[in-house]
Amino acid sequence: MTKPAIIAVGKLHDRVIERLEDHFEMLRPASLDDVSPNDASRVEGAAVSGGFNAAAFQRFPNLKILSSFGVGYDAIDVKTAAEKGVVVTNTPDVLNDEVADTAIGLLLNTIRELPRAEAWLRDGHWKPGASYPLTRFSLKGRHVGLFGLGRIGEEIAARLEPFKVKISYHTRHRKDGVAYDYYASLKALAEAVDTLIAIVPKTEQTHKVINAEILSALGKDGILINVGRGWSVDEDALVAALGAGQLGAAGLDVFYNEPEVPQALLSMSNVVLLPHVASASMPTRRAMADLVADNLISWFKNGKAITPVPETPQR
Ligand code: NAP
Ligand code: 8YV
What we know:
Blueprint: E1 5-9, H1 14-21, E2 25-27, H2 37-42, E3 43-48, H3 54-59, E4 65-68, H4 78-83, E5 87-89, H5 96-112, H6 114-122, E6 143-147, H7 151-160, E7 166-170, E8 181-182, H8 186-192, E9 195-198, H9 212-218, E10 223-226, H10 235-243, E11 249-252, H11 263-266, E12 271-273, H12 282-302
Parallel strand pairs: 1-2, 1-3, 3-4, 4-5, 6-7, 6-9, 7-8, 9-10, 10-11, 11-12
The structure holds NADP nicotinamide-adenine-dinucleotide phosphate and 2-keto-D-gluconic acid.
């Protein structure tokens, strides 16, 4: 029996290919331009890391399912997928713990300047009589606002509880069974808290919503942590607020135009910058890779995807 043809797009984790090879005929072109029309017409599934736009969907007339690596699927044109009846899947939940752990690490590093203190030691400044300066900020007594309380936001909140900080949140819909204070707008949340952790998806509504007004509401002792998408932050406003002392510090895992990081941020001492590594451990990336493969295997075997996104067909 002929195996269905699957196209692998982008820099995919090796495990995805390893898992799929037994079940499918794998096409691995260097670029979509290298796929002949004949091959394109045979492709029924796609494993994707990175983007897949409307033009890419048009190339594969018989595509039925696209399995995307990552929980955020903003780079996949789900509107076109839905119009063409293509199921899109993502990798939710398997990365919640890793991303939440990273968010807490980033928060502590930002507040307690641990990367700077280590650099100070490595640079040979720790000598008799010399101590790293006391940090301006402490996590103790802070009021942390979560912008986003979904799968990952809830795990971040759970990890914050033992730190004895007050926790509040803003989402569009109030969550049942959650004891944290709810704020109906991001502005109201920013006015109430002194520490904001963003973990929302990239959508039309979240574009640059963390703007000058929000940063100013956090205040001069305010801390911003972003582990969602750089898209949500007005980086010019952030640079201005940090530079003018209107915001205390920021910890960022994600940027507006990755991998570009604004020079102004690179030269600031009150920021901690990570290269989008929140889920980037071997075990977690392997689990994400397995879910990419399992979605395709399940769909072709049982006609049912495991984690379809809500915008496209569910099977
Ligand atoms: P999720 O379960 O869908 O949660 C998203 C949360 O954001 C929900 O609480 C949702 O609540 C809220 N939200 C969405 N749009 C909003 C808006 N316009 N205003 C206010 N709140 C809004 O997603 P997740 O699994 O937690 O992942 C969240 C995002 O994190 C992903 O989409 C991805 O972009 C990012 N991420 C980044 C990394 C990294 O490596 N840094 C890793 C994993 C994920 P309502 O629907 O009630 O508004
Ligand atoms: C990954 C992420 O870095 O899952 C997401 O949405 O942003 C991260 O886990 C990315 O998906 C793949 O490189």
